[in-house]
Amino acid sequence: MKLCYFNDWRLGVIKGDNVVDVTDAVKDIPHLDTRDLIIGLIARWDAYKAKVEKASSKGKGQPLKGVRLRPPVPKPGNIVCMAVNYMEDGTLPEKPQINAFHKAATAVIGDGDAMVLPDAPASIFEGEAELALVIGKPATRVSQADAMKHIFGYTCFIDGSARGLPPPGNVFFQMKSRDTFAPIGPCIVTADEITDPQNLAIELKNNGETMQKFNTNDMAHQIPRCIEWVSSIHTLEPGDILATGTNHRGLHSFMDGDKIELSVEKVGTLHIGVKDELKRRWARTTRLQHKEKGGEGPHTPQLEGKYAK
């Protein structure tokens, strides 16, 4: 099943090219705002799944092209992002140490929204293509053997980054938690729809050009290990997001006017724009291309606009 929010935060099920409103079927779930319904539904999925299926089969669908999709989890309690979790197309000599960081839940945006680049002296702005897990059951110190039972579903995730901010050192908070730096969507695909999440093609296009293209089978620490490790540090709750990392070789500059498409096999395609009032410019060069050309540092330098050196 594909669950989404659309228009004025109506809860829907996507069926083909249509979306069916199922909000009324779950409105008795305690909530303060319609945007809270999805977390309540996830936590009570066993009791409500049949109701949602019935409502989606009997309801009248609306064409997807005529609605505005919203983030499928508008208010996650936690967003945890795995750091350096790919073998970079098998080029790393050994597995990197397992690591992660938090991203502010208020950074969430959805399909059709824009990532807004702030007035900050970042050396570059990037967006990382990722598969994200949506947690379905509380997970505290779970084993790898039980980890997959705690996944409700999957969604596309872009990890926005403002690189190189001063002072040097641990700058993950100001680099990762900027408003609009956590695009997710277009929907949640429930776990039963995806047999092997460890073998999914991921592709990110910028203005129609493929910039990142890799497969989840290249993860250094696979999904069960990620859940085991994160849940050993803090409890994961229903509706929490766990982003599984990216292949860094295709990372490149995000700039004003960019049209980004992130496609994850069997999950869908997330579309966002990029806005920068300062109109800063970089070469459209991936990290791999920059390295192959002998460039200094991990990425191409800023060429034009405020903060260019």
Short description:
With 309 residues, the chain is of the alpha+beta class.
Give the structural class: alpha+beta
Order of helices and strands: EEEHHEEEEEEEHEHEEEHEEEEHE
The CATH class name of the largest domain reads: Alpha Beta
**Helix content range:** 10-25%
Give the name of the CATH superfamily of the largest domain: Fumarylacetoacetase-like, C-terminal domain
CATH A-level architecture of the largest domain: Alpha-Beta Complex
User: Could you describe the largest sheet, including whether it forms a barrel?
Assistant: 12 strands, mixed
| Overall 3D form | globular
The tally of helices reads: 6
Number of strands: 19
Describe the fold and architecture.
The protein is an alpha+beta fold and 309 residues long. It folds into two domains: 2-70, no CATH class; 79-304, Fumarylacetoacetate hydrolase, domain 2, CATH 3.90.850. 15% of the residues lie in helices and 33% in strands. The protein has six helices and 19 strands. It has helices at 37-43, 45-58, 144-147, 172-176, 223-231, 287-292, and strands at 2-6, 10-15, 18-21, 61-63, 69-70, 79-82, 100-102, 108-109, 114-116, 124-135, 151-163, 182-190, 201-206, 209-215, 241-243, 259-264, 268-275, 281-282, 302-304. Strands 1, 2, 3, 4, 5, 6, 7, 8, 10, 11, 12 and 15 form a twelve-stranded mixed beta sheet that branches. A five-stranded mixed beta sheet has the order 9-17-16-13-14, with no helix packed on it. The chain has a two-stranded antiparallel ribbon with strand order 18-19. The longest helix is centred in the first third of the chain and has 14 residues, at 45-58. It is globular and about 60 Å long. The protein starts with a strand and ends in a 5-residue tail after the last strand.
